[in-house]
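Q: How do we represent a protein-ligand complex in a form that can be generated token by token?
A: Start from the inputs.
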Amino acid sequence: KETKDQFFIDAGQKHFGTTMCKSCGMIYTASSPEDEMQHAHYHHRFLEGIKYVGWKRERVVAEFWDGKIVLVLPRDPSYALRKVEDVQELVDHELGFQKVVPKCSNKTKTFLFISDEKRVVGCLIAEPIKQAFRVLSKECSRAWQCSDVPEPAICGISRIWVFRLKRRKRIARRLVDTVRNCFMFGCFLSTNEIAFSDPTPDGKLFATKYCNT
Ligand code: ACO
Ligand code: ZN
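Then emit the structure tokens for the protein with zinc ion bound:
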């Protein structure tokens, strides 16, 4: 039994002949020149994209031992908006979204989690909404279904993303906590007042856990 476990552990780490870059998180075959080329390209673009040089006027809305959360609003200086665009492009690429969706509305609020290595390692895009359809999860089933009855909601989360190498450190949780606190001045939104749009499998696992605790 022990040898079997060991086998799986080894296999997992080596990804059957593939390597994971410790900087950008891409998994690729180091022995394939094509893969290496693709990695070199992605690596550079990704690290440029998440680089955060620090802004003269940044809106810090939360601070932690391992980083901080900065809020970017639609009328902010162009360097801030450009950073948000770059990060959104990386996120959309990872989520497999087609080319950038219409420009941010003037009500979009973007929350960036900045690590103490000065990188954008988390991003949450929130918009005001009026209603949402609750996801009905059936026990013992992997199927998800939405109710037909709209329920009032206030804040829609259209994107939530955490850098692959920084996941499961509660960064997403801290981003959502911060949105609930900052989205509407003077009140802390309940989990019923926020809604995740079109969640991915990762997004569903996170949202289910988040909303039940
Ligand atoms: N599998 C199972 N449980 C999970 C997962 C997962 N992949 N991710 C989060 N959870 C649960 C866990 O219970 C976790 O607590 P624990 O680590 O103590 O067990 C809890 O949620 C809190 O997780 P966080 O650490 O706060 O989440 P993280 O910072 O890792 O980010 C996220 C989660 C944003 C979904 C990340 O996995 C990600 O960026 N994935 C790729 C992009 C994506 O799919 N985003 C969602 C798109 S949907 C939308 O944008 C509306
Ligand atoms: Zn890399």
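DSSP finds five helices and ten strands in the chain. The first helix runs from residue 2 to 14.
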